[in-house]
Design goal:
The chain is mainly α. About 70% of the residues lie in helices and about 0% in strands. The mean pLDDT is about 90. InterPro entries: DUF6104.
């Protein structure tokens, strides 16, 4: 199992019943990159992917 899978499973187990807004998620991602700048590119790519997920042109 990949570390990412374990992290996603933990997130779902701990917070799976909560409803969050995209604004909340954006704030958490910003906080994460502020404290871990080495992940800024990965977070940017993930955010862009989410933003364009339903865009038929991409």
């Amino acid at each position: 199992m990949y570390f990412t899978d374990r992290g996603i499973e933990e997130l779902e187990r701990r917070r799976g019943d909560e409803e969050v807004t995209l604004a909340w998620l954006a704030e958490r991602l910003q906080e994460f990159t502020d404290t871990h700048p080495e992940f800024e590119t990965a977070v940017e790519r993930f955010s862009t992917w989410l933003a364009r997920l339903d865009d038929p042109d991409d």
